Amino acid sequence: MNRGAADTIYALSSGNPPAAIAIVRISGPAADRAVEALAGRLPEPRRASMAMLRDTAGGMLDQALVLRFPGPNSATGEDLAELHLHGGRSVVAAVLAALGRIDGLRPALPGEFTRRAFENGRIDLAEAEGLADLLMAETESQRRAALVLAGGALSRLVEAWQGRILGLAAQIEAALDFADEDDVGEELPPGWSAELDALIGELSSTLARPPIERLRDGVRVVIAGPPNAGKSSLLNILAGREAAITSAIAGTTRDLVEAPTAIGGAPFLLVDTAGLRDSHDEIETIGVGRARQSLEAADLILWLGDPADCPDRGRAILVQSKADLEPPCSGADLHVSAVTGAGIDSLIALLTDRARALLPREGEVAINARHREALAETLAALEEARAGHDLILASESLRHARAALDRVTGRAGVEDMLDALFGTFCIGK
Q1: One domain, residues 62 and 16
Q2: What is the DSSP letter of 101?
Q3: Tell me: the pLDDT tens digits for 243-273?
Q4: CA neighbours within 13 Å on the CB side: how many for 314?
Q5: CATH number, domain at 182?
Q6: For residue 40, what are the CA distances in angstroms to 27, 49, 212?
Q7: Is 164 contained in some domain?
Q8: Is residue 403 part of a domain?
Q9: Are 188 and 391 in contact, with CB atoms under 8 Å apart?
Q10: In what order do the strands lie in the sheet with 19-27?
Q11: Is residue 59 located within the same domain as residue 158?
Q12: Among the listed ranges 109-118, 208-217, 238-247, 293-302, which one has the minimum average pLDDT value?
């Protein structure tokens, strides 16, 4: 179905019925006409009104609460209406069918309400990405980070940077206008370089923050060590479910077993690996190779072997995993038992503490790969402006910096990714 700005769209915007209440949204130039057709009248804007909804034959559909939001001051920037229905399947189906029989209306595509909000200037691209993250959030930390982005924190930061870069560019233009030809490049006002340095420092600091992808995908914790060290048992107790097969037989785990989980409100991806040893078994050898590759990609390592054999002490927590069966190991950070539960609380506390340094801080703007690419280009342009001795070239570098920032908020150069982004939204959003 082709999407058109002149179309009026409708969709169920609440959860699938049955439910106590179901909300159907209508957006577009025929929204008022649709409301009048079903309710028999046009309620006052922005005031909830009870109405008996009827189909085109006069048959009763539902006693509903009707709200109207004339554009452009609506969520989508165009005429918008909401029908708050009783949430039964038959009620929702009947109302959607009645809307479908009204000329000029069609069902919305996934994310189309939000896309219209973006195209009509009600939100920018960074805020839309925050909404997408909020829809996908499964942990408290993911929810909080998404709310910061959806609330416009990054957009406001970019706007402030844009204003400061524009101010620096204006000072260059003034210097070019009033300088003699022999003086070009030597008449910048005091403080220009300091302001540019401050901007470069802020962008560098933002780019150095932990990426939002780690918050989405989880801190990757690889559990590694020799065969029969208790790796699978430890993964199961941390994941809170039987995610990996456990056995007293050495070499039971031959491939990576991944278990996404939330610990202390933070997302983790726990990875069980094959025991690290030399083997003549072809399948086990492949599993050991994958285990070593997984270690290289780990954010944190739970090492269950001899501390002297730990492949990366900086990322590792040294765990003696069978503390109920073996004497204490002096080189271990923690002594735990998946059988008795001893030391597990201490391990969880240490994991969440380590994860805190790897995840975006609460309330801080977290940026994704697209943001980082645009900000890195902005930073490079600002550094070019600082390094150059020609005011005209410096002015051009500042122009490039502003253009790169435009891509963060979607003002330029993002058409190729809009369908992919809004396609991740549910129908009705």
Answers
A1: yes
A2: T
A3: 666 655 555 555 788 899 988 888 999 999 8
A4: 3
A5: 1.20.120.430
A6: 18, 12, 49
A7: yes
A8: yes
A9: yes
A10: 49-54, 60-69, 80-87, 19-27, 8-12, 105-107
A11: no
A12: 238-247
Q: Are residues 191 and 279 in the same domain?
A: no
Q: Tell me the residue ranges of DSSP E strands in 28-59.
A: 49-54
CA dist., res. 355 & res. 337, Å (int): 22
What is the C-alpha separation between 141 and 174, in angstroms, rounded? Answer: 47
The answer to whether 332 and 313 have CB atoms below 8 angstroms apart is: no
Cis previous bond, 311, omega within 30: no
Tokens of 144: 């909080």
Map residue 303 onto helix, strand or coil. Answer: strand
Contacts of residue 302, defined as CB under 8 A and 6 or more positions apart, other chains included, come to: 221, 222, 223, 224, 234, 316, 317, 319, 347
Q: Would residue 428 count as lying in a domain?
A: no
Distances (CA, A) of 23 to 11, 20, 26, 88, 97: 9, 10, 10, 11, 15
Is residue 278 left, alpha or beta, with left meaning phi > 0 and alpha meaning psi from -120 to 50? beta
Q: Same structural domain for residues 390 and 274?
A: no
Residue 24 pairs in a beta bridge with 12, 83
114: helix, strand or coil: helix
Task: Quick: pLDDT tens for 139-162.
Answer: 888 899 999 999 999 999 999 999
Q: How many CA atoms lie within 13 A of 237 on its CB side?
A: 18
Cα–Cα distance, 170 to 185 (Å, whole number): 14
Q: Are both 232 and 335 inside the same structural domain?
A: yes
Q: Select the more confidently predicted residue: 102 or 173.
A: 102
Average pLDDT of the chain, as a whole number: 88
Q: Which domain holds residue 283?
A: 215-358
Quote the number of domains for the chain.
Answer: 3
Same domain, 194 and 244: no
How far is it, in rounded angstroms, from Cα 131 to Cα 146?
7
Distance CA 268, CA 247 (A): 24
Q: What token pair was written down for 261?
A: 């989980």
**Judgement on whether residues 265 and 342 belong to the same structural domain of the protein:** yes
CATH number for the domain including 12?
3.30.1360.120
Alpha carbon 352 to its chain's center: 20
Rounded Cα–Cα distance for residues 299 and 215 (Å): 12
- How many degrees, rounded to 5, is the angle at CA 110 between CA 23 and CA 92? 30
Q: The pTM is what?
A: 0.75
- Token couple for 56: 């085109």
Are residue 403 and residue 292 in the same domain, yes or no? no
What is the model's pLDDT at position 357? Answer: 87
Q: Where does a domain end: 99, 119, 139? A: 119
- Structure tokens given for 55: 């189909």
The one-character DSSP state at 272 is: E
